[in-house]
Amino acid sequence: MNLKQLSQLLGLSQTTVSRALNGYPEVNAETRQRVLNAVRETGYRPNRAAQRLATGRAGSIGLVMPTAPGYDSDVHFGEFLAGLGDAAAKHEFSLVISPTHPDEEVAACRKLVASGNVDALFLAYMRERDPRIAMMKSLSTPFVVHGRSLGIPADYPFLDVDNTAAFHDATRLLLQLGHERIALINGPQHYAYAIRRRKGAERALADSGLALREECIQHSPMTDEHGFRAMQRFLALEEPPTAVLCSSTVLALGAVRAINMAGLRLGADISLIAHDDVLPMLKPENFMVPLTTTRSSLRAAGSRIAERLISQILKLEALPEQELWKAELIVRASTGPAPAGK
Amino acid sequence: MNLKQLSQLLGLSQTTVSRALNGYPEVNAETRQRVLNAVRETGYRPNRAAQRLATGRAGSIGLVMPTAPGYDSDVHFGEFLAGLGDAAAKHEFSLVISPTHPDEEVAACRKLVASGNVDALFLAYMRERDPRIAMMKSLSTPFVVHGRSLGIPADYPFLDVDNTAAFHDATRLLLQLGHERIALINGPQHYAYAIRRRKGAERALADSGLALREECIQHSPMTDEHGFRAMQRFLALEEPPTAVLCSSTVLALGAVRAINMAGLRLGADISLIAHDDVLPMLKPENFMVPLTTTRSSLRAAGSRIAERLISQILKLEALPEQELWKAELIVRASTGPAPAGK
DNA sequence: TTTAATATTCAAAGCGCTTTGGGTAGTGCA
DNA sequence: TGCACTACCCAAAGCGCTTTGAATATTAAA
Q: What average pLDDT score do residues B56-84 get?
């Protein structure tokens, strides 16, 4: 069933039917009702491809999903997606995901835009001097970056969490508790958020005349296993840290395990602060020793970005171009005074 | 830059250029090369909406993502998506995700198909007598179900893990070890896989003249927290179980925590077997006490389903309509003989 | 009763691509 | 030389929708 058939059925022109369906004012109320009824009865659905071709709009927002066989999927991706999805669903947008090898993201973005399949693009997993930004600016498709790049001017639309501040504050708390040997279990080194978190910690330490020792830093994908290994490595050091920062509760999971296994008491012998993306699967308050965290909901961020993108596509109210969210520092039991004599 | 402009630039007809690009044989090799060069120089990309309209093909496979504000996202979804993505990327397909309220999946599927946005549909989160199956069978769009429904004939394309057998085998192992009081921490009650897993366990118990006690069953979303709570509840019973089955390593995570907290030794005082979806984030072999599991990769399943869908769309080789994968039972340290005197 | 608005409706022109149904040369063979 | 092929290329017809520019019917104002 297509427009033509439907309009013939009704004895109306395609124009009128189309207008009736799309809410244009110049249609008699009674006629519109007739059309609507016919739609219900016939189950007619406009063909989106044709709609797109005619309007130039796709009704969907695109994102590139870095993936490849052997490349670990990222838990955080799903959570973020849920946020995008919530907002998209509200406006009847769909998400077009282009699964792509992590090394070919730039090309994949360009392709996705050129395909005409999407009205806007969402960019994530930002790196230092990320080439995707210049590329997107040269096109006219709206986009919002989740996070911020580094080393290039921040003159593009983004939504980021103030990672530097979050880790600065967390580190300062540890310092105030008397910790001096602090370690960091971070995400992969090439991501901007990881760099910023590290900087935040380093700055807080520097403010107290201390430094983040090279051997007390771990950069790796955010899985339980990497958290565990990193913590084990730290604990084996000649001068092991008395406190550790984790870039994710998933990393913290492994770290806590290593701590337990070493017979140390979390919050007493060693303190831990994790960044909490609010993964429903893993809540910091439910750890055996509840975790002190810097919290910022990934899902909320996804949702907000989708809102911004859609409001731009549909030319609704103007939303801020750039947003920097503060993470909340929530103190629970995993942090305590530095053990004496260390 | 569109086909028309490109063909004018080359002094060729749109037909020829189109054919050159799509690999049709009736084009002079030299001409084709000229076209290809021009494409490279101009950066021309065919408009997908137009392609779709003309071919009737969308170049993408669709899925409905159940989501709503306040509705927890599911870790397993992301992992599955990665699998779909791997295969999709290989054939230059994209994924169209329609985020939908969990109660409106049927309507969302119908809409997604009718939109012409997708060439095939992937169905998951199967329930008992799932209405989506009849609906999809009435349409002519290819689809593959991940899992199987229950209570209706299995006469549709699916890929499922033999959940009944997996939990049957796991339970039998526990019985062989002398356990008689066995508990089950399962996924939400309305999902077919959860029902099958329960049945598997019940059957194995019945074979030994035992039963799964009602108070030893927990149905809930698969998060750490639910695993923890369930285990705590079990341990508080008058006659607590000596072994527990978990439907996910995420649930096991919480369960193990409760076990530790109760001062019990996993694999000695209490045994645990979890179903392992091979989430990179959380590996059973890395638990403090490595977990005995029934293993079946979610990602591999996703990938395989995408392959099947695509081969059907593109009319490549015929792949099996129905597949039932066996889960491997992998014994690690979390299972041991039932404690004496219990 | 006219005339000017206003309210409805329509025919037709695209949107950019694929594909059908011819054409036109050039080649080999009788 | 004539004929059947083959190789290559083209014009034009859609795909199903939106939107422009007009036409027609209705109503209000003069």
A: 87
